[in-house]
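Budget justification aside, the reviewers requested a transparent look at the raw inputs and outputs of the sequence design task funded under Objective 1. We therefore reproduce one unedited record. The lines immediately below are the C-alpha cells for a 183-residue chain.
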C-alpha cells in the first residue's frame, strides 16, 4: 500500500515538473513584464531605509481613492527596482495615466533625487514597424509623455521619467536609477 502511495506521489512529482502548457497571452505579458537583465540579484532587493524614500499621496477624485507613491532615491536596475516595489511596498513600479500625476511625480522626484531620470513602470519592444508599450502593473496604456525620438525601436527598453521636464525616455533596463513605486 505504502509503496503504491509513494509511487503515486512520485508520479505527481514528475508531472508537476513537466513543461508548462503552451504560452497564453497572459504568459506573454508576464514574460514581458520584467525584461531579463544580468540576473545579478545580490542584495540589491533590500528594502530602502526611510531616509532613502519620499512618499506621496495623490487623491484620484474620479476613482474615489488615493494613489500612493514612493520615490526611492537609491539606484537599482529596472528589475531590482520592481522587486523592491513588490517586496517592500506590495506594489509595482508606477504607471502614469495623466498629466497631473506625471507632473506630481516629476516634481517630487526632482526634489529628492539628483540623477535627472527615475524609473517608471513602462516597458517597450519593437513589433514590426511599431513599438508596443505596456505597464508592468498591466493597467491600460492610455497616456504617454515621450520625449522626441522615443520610445526607441531598436530593442526592448525600460522607461525613465526625466525630472527636468517630465518627458519619458527609453533607457537600457540594466541602468541603475532611482525609481517610483505605487502601492
Ligand atoms: C486610463 O487607465 C487607467 C487605468 O486603467 C484608468 O484609471 C484611467 O481612468 C484611464 N484614463 C483614461 C483617460 O481613460
Ligand atoms: C527633456 O529633458 C531630457 C533630458 O534633459 C531631454 O533629453 C529631452 O529632449 C527633453 N524633452 C523635451 C520634450 O524637451
Amino acid at each position: 500500500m505504502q509503496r503504491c502511495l509513494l509511487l503515486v506521489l512520485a508520479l505527481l512529482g514528475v508531472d508537476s515538473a513537466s513543461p508548462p502548457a503552451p504560452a497564453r497571452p497572459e504568459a506573454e505579458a508576464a514574460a514581458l513584464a520584467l525584461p531579463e537583465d544580468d540576473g545579478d540579484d545580490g542584495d540589491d532587493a533590500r528594502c530602502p531605509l526611510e531616509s532613502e524614500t519620499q512618499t506621496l499621496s495623490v487623491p484620484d477624485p474620479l476613482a474615489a481613492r488615493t494613489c500612493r507613491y514612493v520615490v526611492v532615491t537609491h539606484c537599482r536596475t529596472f528589475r531590482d527596482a520592481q522587486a523592491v516595489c513588490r517586496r517592500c511596498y506590495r506594489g509595482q513600479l508606477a504607471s502614469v495615466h495623466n498629466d497631473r500625476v506625471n507632473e506630481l511625480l516629476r516634481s517630487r522626484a526632482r526634489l529628492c533625487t539628483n540623477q535627472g531620470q527615475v524609473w517608471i513602470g513602462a516597458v517597450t519592444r519593437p513589433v514590426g514597424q511599431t513599438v508596443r508599450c505596456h505597464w508592468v502593473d498591466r493597467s491600460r496604456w492610455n497616456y504617454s509623455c515621450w520625449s522626441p525620438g522615443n520610445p526607441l525601436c531598436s530593442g526592448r527598453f525600460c522607461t525613465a521619467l526625466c525630472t527636468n521636464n517630465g518627458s519619458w525616455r527609453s533607457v537600457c533596463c540594466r541602468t541603475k536609477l532611482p525609481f517610483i513605486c505605487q502601492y
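Residues 103 and 166 are 6 Å apart (CA to CA). Residues 97, 139-140, 142 surround 2-acetamido-2-deoxy-beta-D-glucopyranose (ligand 1) (CB under 6 Å). Computational costs for records of this kind are itemized in the attached budget.
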